[in-house]
Prior knowledge:
By secondary structure, the chain is an alpha/beta fold. It has 14 helices and 10 strands. α13 (290-301) links the parallel β9 (282-285) and β10.
Amino acid sequence: MKRHYFSIFSFLLLCILLVTGCKGKKTESKQHDVVQEVNKSVAIGNETALLLKDLKENGDYVNSKVFPSLIKASIVNESLGKNMLVVDIRSPKQFSEGHIKGAVNKKFEEVPSFFETGIKPFEYDKIIIVSEDGQVSSYATCLLRLMGYGNVYSMRWGMSVWNNKYAQDGWLKGVSGKYETKLENTVNERPSLLVMPELKTGLMTGPEIGAARFRRLFEEGTTDILISADEVFSNPQKYYIINLDRKDKYEDGHIPGSVRYKPEGTLGYTDEMASIPVDKPVVVYCGTGHNSGFATAYLRLFGYDAHTLKYGNNGFMYNKMVKQRTSLSWLPFSSADVNDFEVVK
């Protein structure tokens, strides 16, 4: 398996404090040194430290210019027939009813083995991951990028922008202003927990730990990656809610209790990540659910019970976004985003 791990992310997160046992004094001493190299002011778990160190040494994907790795449907359409592969991770039923010409259908759980033995990934200029709405594909793309597949992209908005048939059942159906009156303007402070989840793979090197976590996340499937606005607004106190919007957008109205993290200054930084609670579900949201999909993948890699809010702000304050499209640079989905591209069966 090709790897090149991420490194340190640009979003949500703060310090670490994880204490784990090791086998043998030499190993314990060596791993303790790794902990100090990651952050001298914070004690973190051995496996977490090893994984963070490995990601640093192999490139900082989450804080690079290519993060998040999104691609427009128009560019995908223009590239059909060229050295590009489209991997559609929707259900076999959805795929059989219509898909992008030349696309291959793989279950989410099959993606790792497909990249390892089904294809030679780096023979393609681009590999495009496609899902219904673009959020699960963002999640999958982040994990693949972190594993070193640097030519993988997620198609923005998913099949909803390919043509109107998919838009009607996807994004156009999902947008809502249902909770616009439930927003708050209070600036919520982060807790100073200084702790991160403890990874327990039992492995001794960063590459091994990363590969094990990568496989585990794909094996777990997609059933609880996304969470709806109804679930969150019914009981916001149940979750630790992370907002990834700009400061002005956050202060103009956000989900009650949500805490803002800078997209470009959180992920991978131990003094940021350790402020995220490990004892409750974490909900991450942004304007469209794409960036939060990438962030959710990174957090889950490190053991957080993270979920991305389906459709992002579009799913609960859509009318407000439309009204403030210019003043706050919102990105509300609309029929104008939908193309009329061909599908095959």
